[in-house]
Design brief:
The complex is a heterodimer.
Chain A: E1 5-8, H1 12-18, E2 23-26, H2 32-37, E3 45-48, E4 58-60, E5 64-68, H3 73-78, H4 80-85, H5 87-94, H6 99-104, H7 107-111, H8 162-169, E6 173-177, E7 184-187, H9 188-191, E8 210-217, E9 224-230, E10 241-250, E11 253-262, H10 272-278, H11 285-296, H12 308-324, E12 334-335
Helix pairs in contact in A: 5-8, 10-11, 11-12
Chain B: E1 2-7, H1 32-36, E2 52-58, E3 64-70, E4 80-84, E5 108-109, E6 115-121, H2 124-133, E7 135-140, E8 155-156, E9 160-162, H3 165-171, E10 174-182, E11 194-200, E12 203-208, H4 213-224, E13 231-234, H5 250-262, E14 266-269, H6 272-278, E15 285-293, E16 299-310, E17 332-341, H7 355-373, H8 377-383, H9 401-412, E18 424-425, E19 428-440, E20 446-452, E21 457-460, H10 470-482, E22 489-492, H11 509-532, E23 540-542, E24 545-548, E25 551-554, H12 555-558, E26 563-571, H13 573-577, E27 581-593, E28 599-609, H14 616-636, E29 667-672, H15 696-708, H16 719-728
Parallel strand pairs in B: 1-26, 2-14, 12-13, 16-17, 21-22, 28-29
Antiparallel strand pairs in B: 2-6, 3-5, 3-7, 4-6, 8-17, 9-17, 10-15, 11-12, 11-14, 15-16, 18-19, 19-27, 20-21, 20-26, 23-24, 24-25, 27-28
Helix pairs in contact in B: 7-15, 10-11, 14-15
Classes of the chains: A alpha+beta, B alpha+beta.
Bound molecules: flavin-adenine dinucleotide and iron/sulfur cluster.
Iron/sulfur cluster binds next to loops of chain A.
Chain lengths: 340, 731
């Protein structure tokens, strides 16, 4: 860890005033501090936003839910309104990290956690995300956790957040406070930038932007929501592939699906082709597989990530089977019941 | 005077006759409350006043030379005390029981991750910062070999054989020829390696996290170029070892070097990444199994050839086929080992070296053979149990493998196992698997001292407790022998000023240090019998009262001055005349997701006969922990080496996946069958710590096959590999 200044902000504008190049917000610190210890991140100033009022609540805002940026992952997953109306979000959060980490981790921090590409964590190895122009060690290296969509020749890393996948499937928006201007809202899928030739720039946020909340639109009545995460052990591992789906049925047919995929792209991956391919169809493995194949036409794999194609196809089928009731007695399926 | 004892013949089962009735009881560990309340001082906890902090710096090339360590690159770090390197720095930890310094490569680099310098500062934070900033220049070699499959580095042993394998294989009615690979593993002990070194004149005291102090003392002295008598090592509590702390480590040598130079104590704690980089790992393996059998299921030919790796100049090679050499008999047996020399983190003993990975292959091959023959896998094993070691012709000292298989099948409900792929629940296939367990057993020279003070006793030995229960069992043996409540026995361990024991390794600690303790206490019994004026066989000791020859007397009256006895034990003729090993049988039931290939172990049962059980609770914990390791090796654990530099890409516990709680079934059960091994040692015990792993993973993988048709040849069986194997099997 390098020496750094530490400021505890009382207000949003106070925090914004301290931010800028080489300053970092600290929220739960569960990702940032790990990266600082190994000098992958070396901010000269930390701005602690955890004492700022008004960022800790989950409230109903008429359209849906407003989740303050400092609401912890544990609180959010346990919120009765979330469990009832957006179970996909609860499930996705609980599928990530560990109880201890979720107690500390915040909504804003979770969205902005950095990739888990092992070379990003190893300062002995070149990495364009750490030092643009240095090269990408992952390319011919250990690539099991890399992305297959949206990558560039400069960076192949995947975004690791489970929560973000659920939020993308639920069409959430991020509320951002800029120092000189009103709060603005950005759909979650537009928060992230693809790597292109600047993999170090991961989001549309300016250095002094602060995420203040996430807005969840009201879910459609009677959607069935499933989060399915496949990983290298049963718990406490990042996704190889994860799928979040919310499905509305019209009798025996699928009325609409909203879907996002994790572990496969530098952001929660959404592909309208999947949703188009499913709308109006009678659920079957074949229909689900065809939808996956549509998305997979965009995939670009390394030898180490070839497996993600069949795995994604199968995980999407498995999730949709649960959501449409094809899977008999599947544990983990919850129907969203909307309070009157 | 130390009483020395050689195990030349079977000894009376004295612990079955003594009166206290405490041996075998499922007692809590006496040090447990201290550990869970943070009062047990581990190596890094004992921080002397004025201690400085050291952080190891790693090499970042796979092979070559360090040409310059630029100390000016860290000169501005506040509180910097020095950068230490030079000819005494060690490349990696010593191998278990080496008793001499590990390789000291000077300015040479033999693997990416090798510790090349120690940065010392007033605070840990400053030292870590400086270690990351230190600029090192190298002269890197081209064409470095990091891939063990490259044959130009291969060293091959002559095959070990019995009978004529080729002829027997050719004559077999059914044959099988399969290659399995296993991933490299890390011991991943919870406590990272740590040392605090303090000099007083020429005398060094090292608080370390070490498993085998008698050897470690010599290794440390040899590394530093001093006399072993100048070294005292303290290691009273160790947060897990699993083989990774058998030999002296670079943290200890570097701490001692810096402390001498600075004239003040130095603490070095490895970061988790450094533990992964430099601590001996388990090799990856490639294993070819060839089995030949007659249609009725009698094995005729068995060959197990393996390829393992290590770095240059290391003597260790994972004994992969160890259990294959004695578990089943056949007319023709053949075992060949090939060792690749690669620039990777060196390999060494990790819990159950040999069996842990060898039995994953052997016991899957047996399952494949059973399937090929259309014989129940339990039956096939029962048909092929030899009555003596087929390679050496030694009779087994004690084996209840057949009972373990039968009892296990009964208790597990094996009869309810369905044909492959026929049991489905929702989107999950469900299946059952079985495997034998075997792990060879040893007695290692050990000494211990017992003091009887009257109504209490003290045990002293440099034996260690790596979380396994040494404190508990040595207390129980002493209490049993001296007729005292266990609470009246104090056990002092982990100090080289005490008599030297085997240390913790190879599952031999309890038997070896336990036997020495037993013999010292037995010598005290002799004195007590004399004082009571009765023969030894008439003497009864119970709850602090001695009885014999129609007399009864409190020990506190019988013992005026403290009675002290020291005894040592070593292997003798029985080690040649008989072959001793622990045996058992593992049963597993798994669910495999039809679509995603995820495997969930639903229940497991291990039935084991492992000699006399000294403490039913700590023994069970060992067996359960071993089975969980088996699960890890079958399903989740894998170190990944960068294909270019050979260094570990999975350098932390987020990327190296030991089983999490959710991986471990709630229904995880161990049953011990009563056994005494009269040829093993004077207390009739066998090793316990490693048998639980041996074969456990194979039972799981055999269950995967039964569930969904997937036979996974490359372990661990992660979802992608299960999917590919299901596809290959047409599921
Ligand atoms: C061992 C381990 C396993 C894990 N497993 C998973 C997993 O399986 N799935 C998963 O999804 N996650 C996993 N995580 C990651 C975990 O979810 C994140 O570390 C956590 O969510 C980050 O939240 P935080 O509040 O601690 O963020 P911090 O570490 O405080 O911050 C992270 C980043 O966000 C920035 N930031 C924080 N808040 C704001 C804000 N309001 N506005 C603007 N910028 C902000 C910080 O400057 C920093 O760059 C794991 C973490 C660990 C250590
Ligand atoms: S994939 Fe991205 S994060 Fe990983 S090494 Fe390449 S540039 Fe760095």
């Amino acid at each position: 860890m390098r020496e750094f200044d530490y400021t505890r902000a009382e207000t949003l504008s106070g925090a914004a005033g301290q931010l800028g190049e080489n300053a970092s917000i600290i929220a739960g610190g569960t990702n940032l501090l790990d990266l600082m210890k190994i000098q992958v991140m070396t901010p000269s100033r930390l701005v602690d936003i955890t004492r700022i009022d008004g960022l800790r609540d989950v409230s109903e805002d008429g359209e849906g839910l407003r989740i303050g940026a400092l609401v912890t992952n544990s609180e959010l997953a346990a919120d009765p309104r979330v469990r009832e109306g957006w179970p996909l979000l609860s499930r996705a959060i609980l599928a990530g990290a560990s109880g201890q980490i979720r107690n500390k981790a915040t909504t804003g921090g979770n969205l902005l956690q950095r990739t888990r590409c092992p070379y990003f964590y190893d300062t002995a190895m070149p990495c364009n995300k750490r030092n643009p122009g240095e090269g990408c060690s992952a390319k011919e290296g250990d690539g099991r956790m890399l992305a297959i969509f949206g990558t560039s020749e400069h960076c192949l890393a995947a975004h690791p957040s489970d929560m973000a996948v659920a939020l993308a499937a639920l069409r959430a928006e991020v509320e951002i406070c800029a120092p000189h201007g009103d709060a603005r809202r950005v759909p979650i899928s537009e928060l992230y930038k693809l790597p292109g030739d600047r993999p170090d720039i991961e989001t549309v946020l300016a250095p002094d932007d602060i995420i203040t909340a996430v807005h969840l639109p009201a879910p459609q009545a009677d959607t069935r929501q499933v989060y399915k995460k496949v990983r290298d052990r049963a718990s406490y591992a990042f996704a190889l592939v994860s799928v979040g789906v919310a499905v509305a049925m019209d009798g025996d047919r699928i009325a609409s699906v909203s879907c996002a995929i994790g572990g496969v792209a530098p952001k929660p991956w959404t592909d309208p082709e999947i949703e188009k391919a499913l709308a109006g169809q009678t659920p079957s493995d074949e229909v689900f597989g065809q939808a996956a194949d549509k998305a997979l036409t965009q995939a670009r794999c390394q030898p180490d990530t070839e497996f993600k194609k069949p795995l994604l196809r199968r995980t999407l089928i498995a999730a949709l089977r649960e959501a449409t009731g094809l899977a008999a007695s599947a544990p983990g399926v919850e129907t969203a019941r909307i309070p009157a | 005077m130390t009483k020395t004892f050689r195990m030349d013949e079977a000894q009376p089962r004295l612990l079955d006759e003594t009166g206290q009735g405490i041996v075998g009881a499922p007692l809590d560990r006496p040090e447990g409350p201290k550990k869970v309340s943070g009062r047990a001082a581990y190596a890094a906890d004992g921080l002397p006043e004025n201690a400085a902090h050291g952080v190891l710096v790693r090499a970042t090339i796979p092979q070559g030379r360090v040409t310059r360590i630029d100390e000016s690159s860290v000169s501005e770090v506040a509180g910097l005390l020095g950068v230490f390197h030079g000819p005494k720095m060690t490349r990696n930890p010593a191998q278990g029981m080496a008793g001499a310094a590990p390789v000291q490569p000077g300015n040479e680099v033999h693997y990416h991750g090798q510790p090349i310098a120690l940065v010392v500062a007033e605070s840990f934070e400053a030292a870590r910062d400086a270690a990351q900033r230190l600029v090192v220049s190298y002269d890197a070699d081209a064409d470095v070999i990091t891939d063990p499959s490259r044959s130009e580095t291969h060293e091959q042993d002559d095959p070990e054989t019995a009978g004529d394998f080729e002829a027997a294989f050719a004559a077999s009615e059914v044959t099988l020829d399969r290659t399995y690979t296993t991933a490299p593993h890390a011991a991943a002990a919870m406590e990272p390696h740590a040392a605090v070194a303090e000099w007083e004149g020429d005398a060094l005291t090292l608080r370390g996290a070490l498993q085998m102090l008698r050897f470690n003392k010599k290794e440390l002295a040899d590394s530093l170029g001093i006399d072993p008598e100048q070294v005292r090592i303290l290691s009273p509590y160790i947060g897990g070892g699993f083989g990774s702390k058998l030999g002296i480590g670079p943290e200890a040598v570097a701490a001692a070097l810096a402390a001498r130079e600075l004239g003040r104590p130095v603490r070095v704690v490895m970061s988790r990444q450094t533990v992964f980089d430099t601590v001996l790992r388990r090799t990856e393996t490639s294993q070819r199994l060839r089995l030949g059998a007659d249609k009725d299921g009698r094995l005729r030919a068995l060959s197990h050839d393996d390829l393992v790796s290590n770095i240059r100049d290391e003597g260790f090679a994972e004994p992969v086929s160890q259990a294959s050499q004695f578990l089943y008999g056949a007319e023709g047996l053949s075992f060949t080992q090939t060792l690749a020399r690669v620039c990777r983190t060196p390999t060494g003993s990790v819990r159950a070296p040999g069996e842990a990975v060898g039995m994953l292959a052997l016991e899957q091959a047996m399952d494949e053979l059973a399937e090929e023959l259309g014989i129940c896998p339990v039956e096939l094993r029962l048909k092929n149990l030899p009555d003596k070691n087929p390679m050496t012709d030694q009779p087994f000292s004690a084996t209840r493998l057949a009972d373990c298989l039968r009892e296990g099948a009964e208790q597990f409900g094996w009869a309810g196992r369905k044909p492959m792929g026929e049991r489905r629940e929702g989107d999950w296939y469900v299946g059952m698997g079985v495997a034998s367990a075997a792990r060879s057993n040893m007695l290692i020279k050990s000494a211990a001292r017992v003091r009887l003070t009257g109504d209490g006793a003290v045990v002293e030995t440099d034996m260690t407790d790596i979380g396994t229960g040494s404190y508990a069992i040595l207390g129980q043996i002493t209490a049993e022998m001296l007729g005292l409540p266990v609470a009246k026995v104090e056990v002092r361990l982990g100090d080289t000023s005490f008599p030297g024991a085997s240390g913790s390794g190879g599952s031999f600690g309890a038997s070896s240090a336990g036997s020495a303790t037993f013999l010292a206490a037995k010598a005290i019994r002799e004195t007590l019998a004399e004082r009571m004026g009765c023969s030894l066989s008439e003497l009864t000791l119970q709850n602090g009262i001695a009885r014999g020859g129609n007399r009864e007397m409190p020990l506190s009256e019988l013992v005026d001055e403290e009675l002290v006895e020291e005894a040592s034990v070593e292997a003798g003729d029985t080690a040649d005349s008989h072959f001793s090993a622990g045996f058992g049988a593992h049963f597993a039931e798994v669910a495999v997701h039809v679509y995603t290939g995820e495997v969930r172990v639903r229940r497991m049962l291990g039935v084991m006969a492992m000699g006399r059980i000294l403490n039913e609770k700590t023994a069970r914990s060992q067996a359960l922990g071993g089975m969980i390791w088996g699960l890890g090796s079958a399903l989740t654990e894998k170190l990944t080496h960068d294909p270019r530099t050979g260094h570990l890409a999975t350098r932390d516990l987020a990327n190296y996946h030991v089983p999490a709680h959710a991986d471990v079934p709630g229904d995880l059960k161990v049953v011990f069958l009563e056994e005494r091994d009269d040829m093993a040692n004077p207390i009739q015990t066998k090793g316990i710590g490693e048998l639980g792993i041996s074969g456990a993973g194979a039972a799981i993988l055999n269950a995967v096959r039964n569930a969904c048709g997937a036979r996974v040849y490359d372990m661990p069986a992660t979802p992608d590999r299960v999917i590919a194997a299901m596809d290959a099997a047409g599921f």
